[in-house]
Amino acid sequence: MKNENVLKIAIQKSGRLSDDSIHLLKECGIDLRNVKDRLRTVSENFPIEVFFLRDDDIPEYVEDGVADLGIVGQNVLAEKNRNIETVEALGFGKCRLSIALPKAVKYEGAKSLEGKRIATSYPGIVGAYLKKNNIKATVHEISGSVEIAPGIGLSDVIVDLVSSGGTLFMNGLQEAEVILDSQAVLVSNKNLTATQKETLDKLLFRIRAVKKAKKSKYVLMNAPNDKLQEIISLLPGMKSPSVLPLAESGWSSVHSVLSEDEFWDNIEKLKAAGAEGILVVPIEKMIL
Ligand code: ATP
Ligand code: ZN
């Protein structure tokens, strides 16, 4: 494959986004070997080369064209503020960037930060937040373990990533305000060649099929024929559900696709309507 036609994608080498990023590419049917302890690897069945980097460096590499694509958290994107394109939200690496302060301290909105010392790994985002709210505060940039800063007297407040809130709680802190909701996104350099754009479109098509499938379940059930109409009316499906006769007369097998959001509600209604032997099967890919 000619080199300039290969799309170079930068993903996190080791950390919270690594496994999900590799998993997503594999689910898209992209063969990747030796993904551990490597700097880069070329796929043998898709024109893509994977670079393994620190997440903080990914926006810069994508802007400079060292990589054509990247997978990175929106938090890092917002902090680095590079001139690159966000192509698709990927649904993993979900977290939020929040203001947190000692439990005993009352928080009354941004004005509670006036004159305070704020420890964070996100000085860019915090600076912009303070400016927007017209607040003067001192920002201390620290690169890790931000949550211990108030305990050791380094700061009054922190702005840090939170997912469950457990780390804050263990350090005697309360989450006071969410500044940014974040998840992993696919980003792209703004000057892809026509061939690279075609490859990106192919990749996106696959990513969307994988995402769509994750949100849906394939459902099979047996239904007495006199209840079929009611059961079918409960099934949205992609088009209309498939109905196949069972060997036992008076019964049919009904197949459909249900979205995860309405899943439990629908299953209960189906049972109430007379459906039996309901099987729920994950869907690997879904092309609409
Ligand atoms: P690197 O060595 O690549 O710089 P890191 O220590 O900066 O790694 P990780 O802790 O692995 O980064 O987090 C990578 C990304 O995962 C974060 O930038 C964020 O987008 C996402 N993330 C999801 N949940 C959390 C969480 N609870 N805490 C921190 N990051 C999270
Ligand atoms: Zn990092």
Give the strand order, joined by hyphens, for the main sheet: 2-3-1-4-11-5
How many separate domains? 3
Average pLDDT confidence is 94
Tell me the fraction of residues in β-strands, as a range: 25-35%
CATH superfamily of the largest domain: Periplasmic binding protein-like II
Portion of residues within helices: 25-40%
What compounds sit in this structure?
adenosine-5'-triphosphate, zinc ion
Unreliable sequence segments: none
The SSE order reads EHEEHEHEEEHEEHEEHEHEEHE
DSSP summary, beta strand count: 15
Q: Any idea what the radius of gyration is?
A: 25 Å
Oligomer class: single chain
Number of helices: 8
Q: What is the rounded distance between the termini?
A: 30 Å
Account of the 3D structure:
With 288 residues, the protein is of the alpha/beta class. The chain has helices at residues 18-27, 58-64, 74-80, 123-132, 166-170, 194-214, 228-233, 263-272, and strands spanning 7-12, 40-42, 48-53, 69-73, 85-89, 95-102, 117-120, 138-141, 157-162, 173-182, 184-188, 216-224, 242-245, 251-259, 276-282. It has a six-stranded mixed sheet, sandwiched between helices. A five-stranded mixed sheet has the order 8-7-9-6-10. Strands 13-14-12-15 form a four-stranded antiparallel sheet. The two termini are 30 Å apart. It binds adenosine-5'-triphosphate and zinc ion (ZN).
List the helices and strands and how they pair.
Blueprint: E1 7-12, H1 18-27, E2 40-42, E3 48-53, H2 58-64, E4 69-73, H3 74-80, E5 85-89, E6 95-102, E7 117-120, H4 123-132, E8 138-141, E9 157-162, H5 166-170, E10 173-182, E11 184-188, H6 194-214, E12 216-224, H7 228-233, E13 242-245, E14 251-259, H8 263-272, E15 276-282
Parallel strand pairs: 1-3, 1-4, 7-8, 7-9
Antiparallel strand pairs: 2-3, 4-11, 5-11, 6-9, 6-10, 12-14, 12-15, 13-14
Adenosine-5'-triphosphate is lined by residues 12, 15-17, 54-56, 73, 75-76, 93, 95, 161, 163, 182.
